[in-house]
Amino acid sequence: MSEHEYKPKSKVGQWFNDRLPLLTLANHLTDYPTPKNLNYWWTFGGILTFCLITQIVTGLTLAMHYIAHADMAFESVEHIMRDVNYGWLIRYIHANGASMFFLAVYIHIFRSLFYGSYKSPREIIWILGIIIYLLMMAAAFMGYVLPWGQMSFWGATVITNLFSAIPLVGEGIVTWLWGGYSVDNPTLTRFFTLHYLIPFLILGLVVLHIWALHVPGNNNPVGIDIKKPSKDTVPFHPYIVIKDGFALLMFMIVFAFFVFYSPNILGHADNYIEANPMVTPAHIVPEWYLLPFYAILRSVPDKLLGVVAMLSAILILAVLPWLDTSKIRSAVFRPLYKQFYWILVADVLILGYVGAMPAEGLYLLIARVATAYYFLHFLVILPVLGFKEKTIPIPLSITEPVLGGNPNLAMAKKKESKIE
Amino acid sequence: MRAFIKFCTIISLIISVFSQSIAAEKVDYLKTDWSFKGLFGKFDRSSLQRGYQVYTEVCAACHSMKYLSYRNLSEKGGPEFSVEQAKAIAASFEVVDGPNADGEMFTRPAKLSDKFVMPYENEKAAQAANGGAYPPDMSVLVKARGGGVDYIYSLLQGYETAPAGMILDEGVHYNKYMYGNKIKMSAPLSDGIIEYGDGTTASVEQMSKDVTTFLMWAAEPHLEARHRMGFKAIIYLIILTTLVYFSMKKIWSGIKSEV
After folding, report:
1. B115 pairs with which residues across the strands?
2. Are A392 and A415 in contact (CB under 8 A)?
3. ipTM of predicted complex
4. Which residue from B minimizes the CA distance to A79?
5. pLDDT in tens, A355-403
6. Domain limits of chain B?
7. C-alpha dihedral over A125, A127, A128, A133, to 10 degrees?
8. Domain of A106?
9. Is B11's CB within 8 Å of A107's CB?
10. What is the pTM of this model?
């Protein structure tokens, strides 16, 4: 794993480390050379690890009190909120934790898009990340079903029904997913099982994600390859640990405001009404973090094509390293890409907004234009831009432009510090 | 530091865009100042006790509150009736218990550990008695409606004569704040419909406020504990963040890079 030899000081340590090199691993993690110019957008990896662990710990505690049965799930959640010691705290952390998790993952993904972190040699890290993101969406969706409120039930009905769009076998697959002819107790119990399983799959993938990261090392705001270790790097501990810690604490303050002062603002009121198969809510909307994809789904008039569009919108990200033909990683040195990047951010926010609105009239039109632009960005703009764009010269190292004095490089450095 | 401020601005911008899209529909509800809002929000104890009176004398005729127990009435952060008062309240209700040694079901006065007695045996019975409409359970009602407390407060005072040209079926009433303006519940409150034990004038406005406060507590019985803990947690986090910030500055002081 590590290039340099590490030898524990104590005899016992050496004996143990020869048999299981845990100490070598610990040494690798603390010494891991990290670019010294990483900005705060890079702290979200650590924040996401915190989110995952928080969800697992609170989730395990909730599972001790929750009852996965259609007749008792809603009541057991109320039992947690009222009678379990600090049950309200644990549940509100878990429910808002999901939103915080997605907030952090979106920042993490868009950081990667801005600084070209998905490009060679980091394609595998990126693809593992996309798989983690997909699993997160599955876990979040199934978790939202568990309280067995109206949105749980109808959200589950709408999403599982998407599979009926598959020609010939669609209906059969939906019945198989439900374990019956409608969303009911068998659906709830299997969703609970999967919701319990997926976080551990994510945990495993996170280990791979970090492992794959530690092979080439971190990308950085300048987006150039750097020698490791060198003047351009600092050891992970204490430099990055303290910086990540500071950012995590800031994040926790925001998190705490949601948990303690507006714990239900990110949820839907209808989910405090017990599931009722006989009454359909006026608007069925998913949680906020799924809204952009929901907008894409509804913008296509055909059901099957809508599902295909929605899935492609996510899967297109997996081939992004090959769609982006530019050799330059960081948007700092790509003046045109930088503009298109912010248009894409706006586009996704607009999709999220119209996803929350009824699919009719002007909203539907906006959703269609935004969907078209989303695909245009990845399928046309990115491949073409790599050939057409005139990029700003990149510096040779993180420290060099300052010492060098080449006017071009100095300008590049100025640009960089602006984005920092 | 400049980089950090820029970073925070972008994040808060994105958050505000999303919270805008979440708070999609905006209706002008009647406003009143709720004592339980804000960083230190607490329930008005006497309002909760009056609210319970409105609930039990008016609402409870049709609406159940099945997740609450009589013991909750004397718990901290709630109406805080004394244990004796709560016992007396419980004892005024009859519950079915059993089977006894002979295999018979029997009725007995309710105890603190019993759940609030429901006005109807089941949902179907409730519907049959109310012209097909089910009076919703009130345990988490304020959290289950878009406008929350403001919506409930307004709805209770939103009964008006229907505008000319609007045809209402029998048993349907016009309400300014109801979704679609048609509601099966007839105006539940009228001035002086009950007599408050503490001498407060029982106006529709006063009763609406009291009962809504009571419903808020019913839905969030640990609200006061949550606000107390939240304030402490955030103060603690701010202090710790400050300390970590200066440690970070110290650690990074030898490195030529902006933190």
Report:
1. B69
2. yes
3. 0.91
4. B67
5. 999 988 999 999 999 999 999 999 999 999 999 999 999 888 887 654 4
6. 222-259
7. 120
8. 28-284
9. yes
10. 0.92
